[in-house]
Amino acid sequence: MGIYYFDGSQQTAAMQSLKPIRVFLSVVEQGSFAGAARSLRMTPASITRIIAQLEQDLGQQLLLRTTRQVSLTGAGALVAARYRPVLEEFDRVTEEVTRTTRPDKGRLSINAPMSFGMRLMPGLVASFRLAYPHISLDVHLTDVLVDILDDGCDLAIRISDPPADKSTIWRKICQVPRQVVAAPALFERMPRPEVPEDLPPERCLSYGHKGAAETWVLTRGGLRRSARAGTDLVSNNGEFLYEMAISGNGIVNLPDFLVRDGLASGALEVVLPDWQVPPLHLMLYYPPYERLPPLVETFTDFFEAYIQDIESFDF
Predict the structure, then answer these.
(1) Which of 97, 190, 203, 209 has the most CB atoms less than 10 A away?
(2) How far is CA 107 from CA 8, 124, 261, 307, in A?
(3) Using the 8-state DSSP alphabet, how is residue 140 labeled?
């Protein structure tokens, strides 16, 4: 997919050619020349002159003027009906071009996982807005892997295994360490596991979708073991699983940024501390751009610099 850049003279010429239509539609919407003048911050005389020239160019009277109101002629109604969607589409495309070609001004649509979004995005977005006050953000949080093309996102943040999707562009930022944790109180009601084979599936809460059990891989030195989590409780939200673990309702396998506070306070402890869980990847992924639009590149650079200062991630 190509990214096309428009110079200012092209855009200015297009906007000038549409100016009479914009003025005409404003008169229709406001119901008067004076109202249109106020709305467009022009003089009534300028509005009158532009409408007269438009009518001359089209060879049709578009408006009926009385001392009290302005109404459409048949030709005027046709022009309004046909040109209104044209102008709306022009404005939409102009906004897209501006958003794509300016590195410090425009609107950016971002998708992020729910847990990451709730824990880290508020601080990240607040810092980003201080640095780039003219960039507006649409931040959508979901734990479902979105179709970035169909959903119209400029970029998405994902924490997952290495991707198999070849239709998008992926950029690995860093590794996301994970830990198998539980509340100490849980082991007052069950034996403390010593090896991965001791993990009882009915006590291991699965992160997944539609009731699918999660498989945990644990390593120690050259040893590699798999443990099957249960299906008694399955959720696609890490925050929910974290709270279930805190309340002593099971063992969970979650990213370090989610469990760090619970471990520091003693509300959680590491299960099988001699065994490690392979990390996930924190990645940004994009539509198949030929090159990153400047606005997307601005956020990407800021995101990577911000994440480097957070201890829960491994660079």
Answers:
(1) 203
(2) 19, 16, 34, 22
(3) E
